[in-house]
Fold each of these.
Amino acid sequence: MSQRVVIDPVTRIEGHAKISIYLDDAGEVSDARFHVTEFRGFERFCEGRPFWEMPAITARICGICPVSHLMASAKAGDGILAVDIPPAAEKLRRLMNLAQIVQSHALSFFHLSAPDLLLGFDSDPAQRNVFGLIAAAPDLARSGIRLRQFGQEIIEHLGGRKIHPAWSVPGGVRAGLSDASRTAIREKLPEAFSTARSAIGHFKTMLDKHRDEAVSFGSFDSLFLGLVGDDGSWEHYGGKMRVVDSTGAILEDHVEAGRYQEIIGEAVEPWSYLKFPYYKPRGYPDGMYRVGPLARINVCRSFGSPQADDELIELRQRGGSTIKASFLYHYARLVEILGSLERIALLLDDPDLHSKRLRADAGVNRLESVGVSEAPRGTLIHHYHVDEDGLITRVNLIIATGQNNLAMNRTVAQIARRFVRGPKIAEGMLNRVEAGIRCFDPCLSCSTHAMGQMPLEVSLFASDGALLDTVAR
Amino acid sequence: MAEKIHNPQSTIVIGYGSTLRGDDAAGPRVVAAVARWELPGLRAIAVHQLTPELAEPLSQAGMAIFVDARVGGGGVRLHPLRPTDRLSALDVHIGDPATLLALAHALYGRAPRAWLITLPAHSFELGTSLSPLTRRSLAVARRRIRTLLKRKHRRSRLS
């Protein structure tokens, strides 16, 4: 009698999902699926809205990464206006996007993943949380909270608020950075750098203790997609798309935003509201690719900043020149924090930030535009069609987490095969499956562009579909 | 990290809720009014939700007042708060102020004397308007906060 074991809800991720694990008659894992059960509908209810409103509307998709949507949406709006935004506006947008990366990655590592990494996957669930982390490593916990706060404060300095700042708009930005804000940010940079370096040091120690997880948490061949600069350096806001395979060979390069549909297709499955983007030339599902910190590191040549580049060299020594182990997303995330802080420090000294020229004015000059930016979790695409009055007629959003959908499913199956043995399911085994998903730091609120929460449950099914058991976490 | 100074004379007022969801804006609306009092030693923070970053300023204050909407009728209610001793899984969403107080204590060794003021709320639909009941409750909540501040001031003068 085969079984389906479902983990529902998956804890310590943003949004809601469930995982189904299918066991065959011998109690071995035959398949596993990562279901996203949120449904939202932003792509539909944005129709008819002025494109000017889209940054504010799409920012509401998510309370964790609204800035990412602000950036991609504003860039799509820039294209409808057919303007090059002023240099100061681009740099200010970059500053906010870097702050977003810092705060989001800090959240992911310190709040969501560190309890597993530091306390162990088999530790008592009652302790395997932030309070357990505080008890075990209080300085690490405190500094992690402050690091996230630092990123949020930069966003607030620029946009007037930490969440959903109404600041990045088509044509530029609404306000600059005051001297007082610049000073306040600069004063907190040393502590932020110290925290980032300390976290990387902690992770290297943790890595040695989690060799099993490092090789089994989503370690497989795949393609990788991300933005890179013209010189091949790490990018987060501009640049063009690049796709590499697991040997590092470049399959696509210098792909401008408007050409994304040449390389990205989207499939749907009946058991999840999350779409399945894939690399078109290889078809579905062979065209699986990953985005996010690991992908950005794999597609780039270097960070272009000294501390991050030093860490990148060591990361590649440990993980390979093209890193396939999804467990190393955590490491990549920390290196990105460090690189982002270096870029923030440089931007603060940029004289362009004093400019009062922050917006380009124009009307509707194009009826279709695509904005691409790197969200903390990966490449984010906003594609708008508008009418002559600038009202949205069609929207397509390709979200970072969605692009990792195939890879997350593959990861769940891989971990399940390695750690799950029927009929007894140990807490630690289930937690490893969840932890594998957390490597990707999925944001499911974004990826289904959804609102609200839905109840989740664990279900166990026989091979004939009969329900064997139901568990709710 | 520089040690921040605990100021037993200070008060932090935190109003939380979505300003786009009707009556859920009650907490932030009350706090916005409190901020306009511009009283020395009073810090007023309006947030969408309670987050771990609030633990540090909480730990530095002598008294904390949380303000939130409460589903249902009745009047404005005032409850004393203590840090929870049920330290369940905490992520970026902290559901209640007692957990936040516990976090402040766990991280910084201090949690202030705290109160929770809740306002009755009916409608949480998309929008920025308050229902008549919640709107009427705003002034009552503000008076409760003034009373707490006066009581605290009297206690500190006597000690």
Amino acid sequence: MKSNVIKLVQNIAESLHLKPQHSFAGGVHPKQFKRTAHEMIVDCPLPPVLIQPIKQHIGELCEPIVQVGERVLRGQKIAKSQGYLCAPVHASSSGTVIKIDDHIIPHPSGMGLLSIFIEPDGKDEVDESLHPLPNYRSVDAIELRERVRKAGLAGLGGAAFPTFVKLVQDQQHPIETVILNGIECEPWLTNDDQLMVEKAHEIIGGLDIIMHMVEANQAIIAIEDNKPMAIESMQQTLLGMGLEESVRVEVLPTKYPQGGEKQLVEVLTGKEIPAGRLPIHIGVLSQNVGTSKAIYDAVCLGEALTDRIVTVSGDALPQPMNMRVRLGTPIRFILEQCGLEYLDDIKVIHGGPMMGELLSSVDVPVVKASNGVLAMHKYSVMQAHHEEEPCIRCGDCGDVCPAGLIPNLLAMHCKEEKFDRAEDYKLFDCIECGACSYVCPSHIPLVHYFRFGKGQVAQIRREKDFAEESRVRSEARDARIAKELAEKEEKRRVALERKEARAKAAAEAAATNTISEKPQEPDVVVKTDKPEAES
Amino acid sequence: MIFLSSPHQHGGNSIQLTMFSVIIALVPAAMVSVYLFGWLAVFLLTLCIGGCLITEYLCLRWMNKKTARVWDGSAGLTGLLLALVLPAAVPWWMALFAAVFAIVLGKQLYGGLGYNLFNPALAARVVLLISFPLHMTSWLIPMHAGATLDMYNFTTSLQFFFFGPDAIKQTWDAITMATPLGYVKTELTQGVTVTEALLHYNYSTLHAFIGREAGSLGEGSALALLMGGIWLMARHTISWHIPVSYLFTVALLAWLFNLINPDLYAPPLFHLLAGGLMLCAFFMATDPVSSPSSGIGKLVFGFGCGLLTWVIRTFGNYPEGAMFAVVLMNCAVPLIDYYIRPRVYGHKRRVPLS
Amino acid sequence: MQIVLAIGIFSALALLIGIGLALASRYFHVEGDPLADKVDDLLPQTQCGQCGYPGCRPYANAVASHEAEVNHCVPGGERTMLEIADIMGVEPKAIEEEETAPVVAYIREDECIGCTLCIKACPVDCIIGAPKQYHTIITDHCTGCTLCLEPCPVDCIEMVETPELLEHWSWPVPGTLRAQVGEERKYQHEE
């Protein structure tokens, strides 16, 4: 009786939107710099060469299936997936494969991967092998999932996780709520904002497909309150498509990192994802709005993933804009399109300033995870990289940490390589958002220490596993050699016994002086394959 | 190849900004000290701050570190805080000794900024109190509260500062008085109740609030300290946890015991305004290096400080317990940091697993 | 008289506490892992013999019985030495050898004569081959112990540096900015 009354009150409060808008603990308010807000999306022209690495997602490498000299069409598969956690790579335009070779990729290490180089022929002919499925509601969810995998979709919010893996119907963990992440909390970036203004229909179409695939009956589209046009566009489109019963737009206060999956789920559903587990374990599925539109394109239009929206901006860029860029376009080309040719004293950030990486070379291609390209003056980037001073233990970092860690103590343990202590302080719960380094008065590169610590722990674990395997193999070898030695000893003993028995019998025969006994068959000594090795 | 990790945007905060904000917040208290003790306060402030800066410079030089760090504000802040907790009667050599001790043994020997266990100014104060009890418990009668005429002008102060009371032809008894805390404590041992003692003392809450009473340089004016403290909290230079929990604990304990026996235990407002409580709560206990890092740890730290302050004031030998309380809780800070941690997202436990 | 009493009380106290400790060490004794096992767990199991003992287990036994110093394991490097010193309760000692990059063995199969001498020498059985057949190293299992180099009569085995995999790359420790800027200048200078 009492719980019914409480539920009634809650329902009333919810319908009146009186639920207190609680936010996650911590967070910072960096300066937004949204200079490309309200800039319509511009198509980037085809570059002279498209460079497509064979891995643009979290997971296994793909294997190239085209030869040098072969002509490919836009959307044709050029590298097939290997293993489960993999999404295939498709050609971004029609043209000829000119080379398959190692090339540098946008990775902080500056290392490279095998890449397929395509020279576009300008005709941009499309591969028609993926048929459009506009009546997706009558298509089996498994087939739709296979379509999403075949189209090479990966998370376009920056993480690039193969999308089809998440779109699963698990009996033990049914999905109740689908969340569409339109937050875009990183400064400078506006590609999701503009996508929601211009392509709201496709995004919500993709959401409908997702909801059908995982059999969820509720969805929330989360947008930050600094995007009024996007909010209006999405709400109008929802009404126009008649989905306002099951889908609602939730406007959240602007705070970094509101767009982090863990924080978003906590604010929207009130539940926390348990440590080490996934959102599906609490019945939630989260997708970026760009990925949702890509799902719509893949299913309803039969298009593989060949382009994405990139915010090209930065304080050193003459003409910042939101561009639709083909995957594989070299970043140098994009910067030239925006008026930047001479890159002296310019640092280019791939992604946003809080979690993106500095590029060591602008000849890297745009990949599925590239949501932003920021050309910054060197001095403005270096303002964030002062010389490290001693930690004054002010605790500001802990106040802003969205995961509830104590970053200054954690970084100290990582620095002193006390990784057991670091894991005890929950090193692996850090989402590397950068809010702690943002506020640190001593300019300590906290996130760098955590990344260093995580890498070292992973390496130590690998080395320990390898040492254990080696020890097992070594002990097996010792056992094998001991067994062989024992067998040899056994044979010698048996041979010696027989020899002694024969000698004894011969002695007896000689003693009795009879020639009645037949000569004994000589013993057949079985020769082993292994030659004697007395070392 | 240089590896610079994200984030590539910074909020603009720096150690210098933090330290100088605290120095600015202490300016009202310093001005009140000059109002109370005239030129003597000026000399004491100058010597302490100057002594700290010079000692820090020499230490950095000797330890082969960058000497530009002397301007990061931490040595200056230590000097200012040290001056504000010293009684006005300290001679120049004692002030210099305190400054050198605070920087060398209170900070640099631990490893420099960020590594000291104790608040340097408070550590120096405690050492002085135990080593030179006479000077450190002689509270000069301030101006506007009945001081000897012309005691605090330039020449007289100079003579007193360098040569003691004999040089200005005064005796200790003539120029000193007891603080409210000290007076109440001695009277309690004689069987006088708290209310009677306060009456004999001519205690006025208003004067205690503004600062027209005997005490160390900075602890007099609760008003000036509150102004500075609240400004710092609004700027997020210090967090609210320690001052609020510290003052709340003292007020609560004083109120409870005052209810039980008003004759033996002083009322909460008296405790809050008396002695160095306000100064310690807002500026000493909140020293970032010697206080816990997490918000919950800070609450526990403030609670512990408050408890110890009240206990030492009421049951201990010394009339003033704030500085001992803070120094004692500073010892416990590593323990607090280890055992009292905020809850991590996705986990249920608070305590460490090992 | 009082001094005698004081001495007597303290002596009795010392005796009581001593008896208490002896009883505690007997009745509260905790059976733990033998020390040699613990040391063996820390070693990298390369079985290379660079420590002077024929394998990791013999070295662990020697360290546990205080016959060997803690700084003999070369593949383990400084980290292993510090861990062993920690367990043994002794002062850390610097390793005399230079720490080299991880290497694996590689057989130039064109030159291999199929004598199987290296197969017998490998302590972890990671060489595949048969008499008169090419031999080859299973690179994933090779620990880089170099024990196969000597027995080869045609010297067709060499040690090569393991290439760094992208998945295994990790961030190096942050350097001070001054050191980083210096390194950048050096890098530009070398170009």
